[in-house]
Amino acid sequence: MEKYIWLIPLLPLAGFVINGLGRNTLSKGVIGTIGSLLVLVAFGLSVATFFQIKSTGHGIEVNLFDWFNVGKLHVSFSFLVDQLSGIMLMIITGVGFLIHLYSVGYMHDDDGFGKFFAYLNLFVFFMLLLVMGSNYLIMFIGWEGVGLCSYLLIGFWYTNPSYADAAKKAFIMNRIGDLGFLLGIFLIFQTFDSIAYKEVFERATSVHDAPFVLITLLLFVGAVGKSAQLPLFTWLPDAMAGPTPVSALIHAATMVTAGIYMIARSNILFTLAPETMEVVAVIGLITAAFAALIALTQTDIKKVLAYSTVSQLGYMFLGLGVGAYTGAFFHVLTHAFFKALLFLGAGSVIHAMGGEQDMRKMGGLKGKIKITFITMLIGTIAIAGIPPFSGFFSKDEILAAAYAHNPTYYVVGVITAMLTSFYMFRMMYLTFWGKFRGTHEQEHHLHESPANMTIPLIVLAVLSAVAGFIGVPAVLGGHHELHAFLAPVFEPSAKIMGEHELSSSTEMGLMAASVIGALVALIYAYIKYVKNAQVPVEDTEERSILTNLSYHKFYVDEIYDFLIRRPLDALSGFFYNIVERLGIDGIINDLGKGTIETSKALRLLQTGNVGFYIFMMVIGIVALLVYSLKLFTI
Predict the structure, then answer these.
(1) Which segments of the chain have a pLDDT < 50?
(2) What sign results for the dihedral spanned by CA atoms 525, 528, 534, 538?
(3) How far apart are CA 529 and CA 536, in angstroms?
(4) Cis bond leading into 488, ω under 30°?
(5) What's the helix, strand, coil split of the chain in %, to 5?
(6) Which residue(s) pair with 190 in the sheet?
(7) Nearest residue to 494 (alpha-carbon basis) of 329, 369, 325
């Protein structure tokens, strides 16, 4: 497979070129087929590569060409596909193909159909580049590329100013994190004289005076921006401005997990910086709980899922911070399935509702769109962590590692899991149970989505149900095949950290506590929104103070606006009005005015009178004569 690996990213890039150039000439059927089929072929190659790695037990490194040499810096354009990136390739191309297929139906009536598929293909290309690169520079190129594509996709309907603003917000906030990532790469090169993974990780264990804490903190800043953690998380919910397939692509398996992948790839550096690991765990835990609290009261179905994504990413960072690298990556895998399913399911609901996203205007849909209802229910059970669905196994592994590291982390994690179960089933109950609360026209319009939209839902629902079985822990009679498969990638870190195994009774007790908590939250949501048929109120004055705080996202955007934007606007106003206009412009304009006035005065010497010119010549000759005879000394 080594000689075909380069085709995996090239195929989506070819789709971008073909669909981009032919967006106004090719038919929508041809565009959809090209965009989807090329990603499907890339998925086939990814699967073949995965099985080769599984059979041989070692990764594949392919050097395409030597890129550049500057002093000690030698950079090759090469790919590294090992156990970690091999799984990521299948997630990106597999889930990406399903989203492409779904988009054929969802975007069929959109005038920018060709442009949309070109952007999707370009996004997949850059994401593949990010995970396949064998050094930090190629990763950074893919990192910036997905940032660019997210800007294009979030603001796809750019004629709406709020959508364009959301795209700019995502782009700018990501640049803050990207600066930290770039500085981290510079420091890695300064410390290890290389930015290639293999060389950096080998030298890391032998360089005892390396600034591991500073390096990893800078890398973590990049991860915070890309994976939407506190304080750089507010761009992600606003990214809902993009079409629903974009939300699924960005929020599920690809862009937002780039930060998780980067830390997992750099695991040895983080393991050698325990202080940074603690920071990662705390930030992840706070983000998970904070986003879950916001999701409790949201009424926009896509906003609920957006804050859910922020919360689940917090869980992944918690896993990374407590050293459960496999657990965190396991949650990346399961989250890719059930969150893509939930977003695409939400898109199917919105499609049936004629564009309506407010859950207060839904209700009673389970009999109208049965496939969407059943598949979304599976995804909801999975994300709530209820066995035997996938989210239970991955979330339990993170919580168990958190308990072994610090029981307080576990307690907060379980409370957050309860909140997750509550707000997800709240979403389901408000959307699918009870009486229909929309308009008569919307009720008349209700219908199931076409096959090219429901087939991806069914496939993702099956994966959400069974994917957890690749990581069944020993206490439940499993062998955790994923842990064994990823062992070569995380083995150096495991040797440094050592094993922190829990007793079987403790682990079973922890599982039971999290499951019971999720079931209690589920039942409470049922009583509140189904049995008592409560519907969130629209009037702010009727809500409690805490509910208002949650509904308004704890006014984080307003706080940022007050503390950051307004002072910067005032500072820029000062520089513009005082420094620029009165200072710099004033000096330049005064010089210009002085030159003009002086030239006006000197112009008067040019009278056109020949006698005056002869007189001035005589004066000049006399002056030269006086100067040459040195009659006067200065």
Answers:
(1) none
(2) negative
(3) 9
(4) no
(5) 75, 5, 20
(6) none
(7) 325
